[in-house]
């Protein structure tokens, strides 16, 4: 009975007794969730267009952020370094299409997946060779991103907002909205959706798979760059960021591999859920549950809805 009370009653009593702290936890979970959604979008973009689960998306986040910091470290002005990083992600997209995807057209999905694992370790080695393995400090102020914090008095207490968290939430939300509009309203976006629906049908109406794949990997690279800047501003830029990027996996399980809205909703569920779990239920398990709770939430969804909240149910008749 005591255990049931500790699990089912005490956490909610704590939420009600300290509502300002509860709002603080919700805010931090919301920011994390939006950034998880941004990472997941990179996976969704590539999977929708090519059917490839891009295991390298996490290291692309790290490589983009390291490139930005590294260019600035050798004297390149911040905004010029940002522009050069965009060109780096374009070059990476073209190289992946030419050297990885094009030779493996019509190969089984597992072959393409293994190719992205190989790409992951190639970028890890290249990044360590060029930038070294020690953590770097993101050029937050040089990019014009806000720093500091402010307090909001509410519910009998104070909620602290970090300026960089607000900027991250706004930028991430703007990118998510922009990508959604891009998919729905532009000619290239419609071509991407056509390729996602049926490669052969898209080819028959003159859509170039190679061009679409290069575009979508470039878009995923831009998402990776934005994600690397935001996560790097909140912590350090290091290869540990790719572990954070793997939080996109439970987000994808919740939202569905092909759904942009699913990535958003899944990211918010995971971000808020793991923060609430860590603060209010974590002490019952000794703390540290934030590292694995997201995967448990995803497992629960898999048991009841394997295709995710917004994924398509596939029915095969035999």
From TrEMBL:
Ion transport among keywords: no
Instruction: Name its cellular compartments.
Output: Cell membrane
What InterPro entries does the database record attribute to this sequence?
ABC_transp_permease, BCAA_transport_permease
Q: Which domain of life is it from?
A: Bacteria
Q: Which Pfam family name is an example for this entry? A: BPD_transp_2
What keywords is this UniProt entry annotated with? Amino-acid transport, Cell membrane, Membrane, Transmembrane, Transmembrane helix, Transport
The protein's name in its UniProt record: Branched-chain amino acid ABC transporter permease
* Organism in which the protein naturally occurs: Benzoatithermus flavus
Q: What is the lineage of its organism?
A: Bacteria, Pseudomonadati, Pseudomonadota, Alphaproteobacteria, Geminicoccales
């Amino acid at each position: 009975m005591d255990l049931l009370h500790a699990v089912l009653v005490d956490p909610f009593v704590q939420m009600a007794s300290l509502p300002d702290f509860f709002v603080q936890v919700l805010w931090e979970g919301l920011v994390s969730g939006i950034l998880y959604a941004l990472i997941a979008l990179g996976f969704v973009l590539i999977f929708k267009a090519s059917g490839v689960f891009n295991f390298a998306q996490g290291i692309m986040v790290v490589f983009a952020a390291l490139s930005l910091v590294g260019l600035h470290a050798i004297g390149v002005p911040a905004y010029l370094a940002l522009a050069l990083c965009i060109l780096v992600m374009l070059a990476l997209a073209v190289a992946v299409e030419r050297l990885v995807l094009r030779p493996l057209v019509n190969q089984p999905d597992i072959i393409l997946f293994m190719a992205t694992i190989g790409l992951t370790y190639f970028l890890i080695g290249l990044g360590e060779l060029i930038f070294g393995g020690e953590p770097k400090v993101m050029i937050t102020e040089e990019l014009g991103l806000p720093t500091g914090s402010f307090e909001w008095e509410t519910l009998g207490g104070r909620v602290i907002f970090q300026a960089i968290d607000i900027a991250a939430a706004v930028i991430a939300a703007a990118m998510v909205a922009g990508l959604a509009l891009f998919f729905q309203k532009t000619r290239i976006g419609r071509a991407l959706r056509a390729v996602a629906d049926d490669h052969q049908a898209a080819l028959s109406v003159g859509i170039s798979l190679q061009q679409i794949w290069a575009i979508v990997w470039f878009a995923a690279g831009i998402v990776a760059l934005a994600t690397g800047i935001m996560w790097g501003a909140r912590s350090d830029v290091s290869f540990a960021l790719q572990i954070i990027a793997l939080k996109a996996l439970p987000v994808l399980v919740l939202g569905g591999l092909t759904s942009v809205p699913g990535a958003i909703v899944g990211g918010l569920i995971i971000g808020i859920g793991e923060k609430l779990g860590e603060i209010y239920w974590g002490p019952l398990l000794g703390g540290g549950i934030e590292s694995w709770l997201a995967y448990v939430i995803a497992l629960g969804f898999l048991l009841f809805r394997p295709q995710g909240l917004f994924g398509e149910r596939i029915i095969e008749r035999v």
